[in-house]
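1st attempt posting a full record on here, be nice pls
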Amino acid sequence: PTLIAEDTDKWRQPRIIGYTQFSLGPSVLFGYDLGVHPDYRRKGLGAALHAERCRIGARFGATMVTGVTQPANVAMRRLFDRCGMVEGEWIREHYTDVEPHVDGIPYMGGAPTFEWAAKEPPWTG
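the predicted structure (as C-alpha cells):
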C-alpha cells in the first residue's frame, strides 16, 4: 500500500506533502519508500508516516520491519535509529536508478520499533 499525507489548508487546492510505500509478508513489513515535501520537512511528518506503516503492519501480524536508505539520507538514518531499528551491513551499489550507483544501508527492527510506533502521536501539522 501507499499512504498519502495531504495539505488540508482550505484556501488552497489539496496537495500531496508526504507518502510512504510498503508491503507485508509473513511477519515482515518491508518499507520501500518514504518522502516528504521540502516545505514540510523537520516537522515530524516522516516519523508519523513511518509509525503509521508500522502500526498497520502490526495489525496484520508483522513482528519485523525492514528498510534501506542511502548513506547521505541523514534524516532517514536518524529516524531508523530513533525508532529502534538496527543498521546492517551496507549493500554496495544498491541504488541502481541513479548514476553513479549509490550504496544502501539496510535496517531491521523488531519489538522496540513496533512499541515506538504505538506510542508515536499522529501528525497534526
